[in-house]
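Help needed: design a sequence for this.
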């Protein structure tokens, strides 16, 4: 650890819509160290998937007016399509959310895995290589062997049978394991897992997440988990980035975030986790802002129980609120947690201190001394 594998700096992502420009991602910064597992957490529509698809170069209709995405120090936004394609799949890989729609229904699992092995890291079109591959039975046999071995590694008990099966013949849990096998086939250094268990029942999701955890630890793969569930993020990640309406509102090591949640949105998410003592939480009232006309100041202002008039106009830049903890809220004092990007520069405003700090209250969600909840 210690050396970043991925650095996202002041990233802005816009889309043109009939109603104007949607400013979906608004100046986010985060870093993943080598071997680290980080989570990006927030509700549906907050920009998590747009962020990771921007990293992977899978958003041809978006514009990125500002920002940098550095993979192993290299600015991937300045690379050509062919150069990005050559890194995708081999260096960086992604597990998509829904295994049913992510797998091709008219190809067998084996055909899809063989395709990945054949094309990983290669330029998009190469007729000579196509012909050479078509004549090369040796590499086909090796690829088949490697694919079946990988299906075994994701604990599929009859890998040869699954290799010959169509996705529709498999259960949801099996399809998710196949997606994990495909994502890890090329031994990527960075794996992005976009809500990898969401389409599964709770028990199968837990098994799949445990398996994924073991596999990436064995390989020392860096992982970015995307999830709407802080409980899942606590189980799988070393570090959490809480995202709201295209901005990262709080960043901290996982145990610290659960022991000392600061941003009102993070606290609202924690209060939404069902616990044995309080049952199902109240959730957070209201909805995400319109990205074509977002608030000038804090994007959470319409839903925040602690909002003050100044929050409507003053941008709450992230400030350092602990040795490795940053929070973007005017209730907290501290030096800027990152370079104050010119487009988002703002002066601090005084709206008082967080009421739970004044009252000396506990963290929400019945957080115990070790940072766990009683859910
Ligand atoms: S800046 Fe104001 S509105 Fe935004 S989260 Fe903090 S208190 Fe709430």
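Sure. Designed sequence:
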């Amino acid at each position: 650890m210690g050396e970043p594998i991925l650095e996202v700096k002041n990233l802005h992502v816009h889309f043109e819509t009939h109603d104007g420009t949607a400013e979906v991602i608004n100046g986010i910064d985060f870093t993943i160290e080598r071997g680290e597992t980080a989570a990006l957490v927030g509700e549906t529509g907050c920009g998590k998937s747009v962020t990771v698809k921007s990293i992977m170069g899978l958003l041809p209709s978006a514009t990125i007016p500002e920002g940098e995405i550095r993979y192993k120090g290299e600015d991937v936004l300045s690379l050509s399509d062919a150069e990005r394609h050559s890194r995708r799949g081999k260096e960086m890989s992604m597990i998509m959310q829904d295994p049913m729609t992510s797998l091709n229904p008219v190809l067998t699992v084996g055909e899809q895995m063989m395709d990945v092995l054949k094309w990983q890291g290669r330029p998009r079109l190469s007729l000579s290589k196509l012909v050479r591959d078509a004549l090369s039975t040796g590499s086909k046999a090796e690829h088949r062997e490697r694919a079946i071995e990988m299906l075994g590694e994701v604990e599929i008990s009859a890998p040869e049978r699954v290799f010959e099966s169509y996705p529709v013949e498999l259960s949801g849990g099996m399809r998710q394991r196949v997606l994990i096998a495909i994502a890890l086939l090329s031994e990527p250094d960075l794996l992005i897992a976009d809500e990898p268990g969401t389409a599964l029942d709770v028990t199968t999701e837990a098994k799949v997440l445990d398996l994924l955890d073991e596999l990436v630890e064995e390989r020392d793969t860096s992982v970015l988990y995307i999830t709407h569930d802080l409980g899942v993020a606590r189980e799988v990640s070393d570090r959490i980035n809480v995202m709201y309406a295209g901005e990262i509102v709080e960043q901290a090591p996982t145990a610290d975030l659960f022991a000392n949640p600061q941003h009102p949105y993070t606290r609202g998410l924690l209060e939404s986790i069902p616990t044995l003592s309080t049952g199902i939480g109240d959730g957070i009232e209201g909805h995400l802002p319109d990205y074509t006309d977002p608030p000038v100041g804090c994007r959470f202002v319409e839903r925040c129980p602690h909002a003050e008039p100044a929050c409507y106009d003053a941008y709450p830049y992230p400030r350092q609120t602990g040795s490795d903890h940053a929070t973007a809220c005017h209730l907290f004092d501290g030096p800027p947690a990152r370079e104050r990007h010119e487009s988002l520069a703002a002066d601090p405003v005084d709206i008082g201190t967080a009421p739970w700090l004044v009252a000396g209250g506990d963290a929400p969600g019945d957080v115990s001394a070790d940072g766990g909840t009683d859910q």
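The pocket of iron/sulfur cluster is lined by residues 264, 298, 300-301, 304, 306-307, 311, 316, 329-331 (CB under 6 Å).
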